[in-house]
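tool_call: predict_structure(chain=1)
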Amino acid sequence: MNKEQALFRYCLRLGDTSLIAGHRLSEWCGHGPILEEDIAMTNIALDLVGQSRTMLQHAGKIEGKARTEDDFAYLRGEREFYNALLVEQPNGDFAVTLVKNFFFSVFNYFLYSELQNSKDETMAAFAAKSLKEVSYHLRHTSDWMVRLGDGTEESHSRVQKALNDLWMFTDDLFAMDETDEILIKDGSTVDLSGVKLKWQQKVKEVLEEATLKMPQDGWMQKGSKEGKHSEHLGYLLAEMQSLPRAYPNATW
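tool_result:
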């Protein structure tokens, strides 16, 4: 694998993860627990889809085969996606969605904080712009974690259960392979082991304030960077891609 191939794959990872996370949040549109939060989740979904577009467009330019962000989003199969396992998990109740997006927002915050120093100018600019959005995502989800964790007995138990159930997908966020090794040496990306330490510390701080227990590491599921996913991604893609696959040449 050369640098160009590694950067192409890395852009797909970032773009795919933001796309699937944004799509999951969009499923809440019109179903939020309160109107204000319904709007907030929709706006965060739009931020994530916008971030995805930037990275998928960059991937297309690197590949040089005239594929657009729409081609990457709608015309690839399940094993051709490289999104993190965490974000493809079903929404569940509001607590499950909250915990997923809290974990993901903490990860994005520390990743983009370092990635804005990337030697790849497009990557650095993308990270700097996205960090402004992700900072809000982190503040928003952290506030809700404290609000529900230190709320009623019911809200506390639901959030704790979501934490316990989703914890096994978090290590996949920090898995590294040849793609990362090549780009770390080149200065285009960052070592995720350092990001993981900061992620763990921030998660611990918020959970302590929310009177929630940090789950214990057990069996951790990985594989997204190899295109291996849970059964949930296939159903998500079938819905998300239904229109462009039924009408491949359709235009607005």
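agent: Residues 51 and 201 are 26 Å apart (CA to CA). Proceeding to next step.
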